[in-house]
């Protein structure tokens, strides 16, 4: 068991201002994937909550949640770091912010879109496997689900302000199997997308 995996929330809390500054100064390369996410959500737009998005590991809300809000979506941001949520509320005061661990989330409602961007991959592999039931529990019919992972099964250590930052991934075949077993179809997937910061990205839709 990796000790570093238990330190992710504290690490982001400790270095929240530096992380936010770096994120806001970086290039916004996620626009095309957010556009695709919106297309999948579009099938729900006539429903009462057809533009409701659940952002798991929302951080300070930049750039993902802010972009979605600008497009007319209502975002519920979830983060385990109270410091990050304070920054989220300051930037997006009209959106709902919930302090919670995504691994035990139970909001009792469903969303047209679920996003776990640059957050899901900080979970241990067994926790990632268990997350698919939580995705399912919060997904409306035909909801969009988008998350980032690693390209292959394994653990990779990054760095945040000189401290070790834990990442883990399952194999692509296992993600595909987990999605299918929990009622999601893969719409698009890219391994280390060169146009999106070399992220490995999954976009799926609930059945």
From TrEMBL:
Gene Ontology molecular function: methyltransferase activity
SUPFAM superfamilies: S-adenosyl-L-methionine-dependent methyltransferases
Keywords: Methyltransferase, Transferase
Pfam families: Methyltransf_25 (PF13649)
Annotated ranges, domain Methyltransferase: 53-141
BP GO terms, sorted: methylation
Superkingdom of origin: Bacteria
Protein name as it appears in the record: Methyltransferase domain-containing protein
